[in-house]
Amino acid sequence: MNIDLETAMDRAVIVDAVRSPMGRGKAAGALAGVHPVDLLAHVLTQLVSRNDLDPATIDDVLVGCVGQAGEQSATPGRQAVLAAGFPVHVPSVTIERKCGSGQQAVDFAVQGILSGHYDITIAAGVESMSRVPMGSARMGAEPHGEGARSRFPDLVPQGISAELVAAKWKLTRGELDDYSARSHQRAAHARAAGDFDDEIVPIPAPGEHGPVPVSADETIREGTTAERLGRLDPAFDLNSYRERFPELPGVISAGNSSQITDGASALLIMSEQRARALGLRPRAAVVSSAVVGDDPTLMLTGPIPATHKVLARSGLASDDISTFEVNEAFAPVPLAWQREFGIEEARLNPVGGAIALGHPLGASGCRLMTTMIHHLSRTGGRYGLQTMCEAGGMANATIIESLTD
């Protein structure tokens, strides 16, 4: 998708973007007591309320969600629309492109507006990883099937792919831990400065004496150091893989991987003409987007070709981009990407990423974009580029233009 901003009659604009706090995806996590439907419903309610928008005017709610099982199996967006009190005629659809599900929801919303099928949409994402855990119970023993496995016999879990990426780009454990500590430090600094205040909406969680509002990220570990992270054991048993991949370095730990997290996020997207008619000031416009497939064994390298593709489509160069959000699924992902593009540290994940803030799978695409929009507005940057690696060796990339002074 490529939008010519000079000639487009009516571009798709993002009027607002909000998210829940990020809660640790454990039984004792701050949001673990909140049903995922209710988690998303609270975010939807506050998004509409703070923009004084009649929810009856929403054409569709597009929701990214990866773990569509258990409490997330009944089209969670539709249930959240009902729980939020929206009129029953407002529909919803669930989108699953693994870690890029929320970003794909944004792309589909924009495409629907540009085609004339939508005037007003919400793109959102939700994942309660404490209540719908990852693992074989959800995925099955063989999620690939015989056909894919016979064509690509070396398919491996994502953690092993992260090890392979580290080996290919010769990334050391020290580099991974340095980067991960910096993610926490940047997120802690942003939180202390109030940089997340406008994007976070509070979520009422069950408490002993009634609902307790959760309004701050639980995942950021202030004071984290590379030395402390370096003492963590490797996360994966590599013995069964070394015959095929003797180069595996054993450098991936829980500390340089994204956190299992509960969270939700939502963006209000509409045609610029409709925003103008409603007296709403857009925060950003989508310039261009792209999706690619890449090596399914390395799996996590898709952001590299996706970035090349979206830059080519947009006519922009990397020097034109004020900030890059490269999802921190594992530290080798943004570091390998950085080596390919030579981007300085200051422009890469400037307020931390999923290593510090967490990775609620289906919500992360919208969470990253929400944070990027607010960061550009706060710092005066013009363009932002977001890209997400995805299971199966895929990636989304999107470029936005900030429209706030």
UniProtKB/TrEMBL annotation:
Q: Which UniProt keywords apply?
A: Acyltransferase, Transferase
Q: Which Pfam families match?
A: Thiolase_C, Thiolase_N
Residues of the signal sequence? none
Under the heading SUPFAM superfamilies, the entry gives: Thiolase-like (SSF53901)
Q: Does the keyword Acyltransferase apply?
A: yes
Active site (record annotation) = 99, 359, 389
Tell me which family the UniProt entry assigns to this protein: Belongs to the thiolase-like superfamily. Thiolase family.
Q: What is this protein called?
A: Acetyl-CoA C-acetyltransferase/acetyl-CoA acyltransferase
Q: Decide whether keyword Transferase is in the record.
A: yes
Q: Which organism is it from?
A: Haloactinomyces albus
- Domain annotation Thiolase C-terminal: ranges: 281-401
Stretches assigned to the Thiolase N-terminal domain: 13-273
- InterPro entries per UniProt: Thiolase (IPR002155), Thiolase-like (IPR016039), Thiolase_C (IPR020617), Thiolase_CS (IPR020613), Thiolase_N (IPR020616)
Q: What is its EC number?
A: 2.3.1.16, 2.3.1.9
Query: Annotated Gene Ontology MF terms?
Result: acetyl-CoA C-acetyltransferase activity
- Gene3D superfamilies found in the cross-reference section: 3.40.47.10
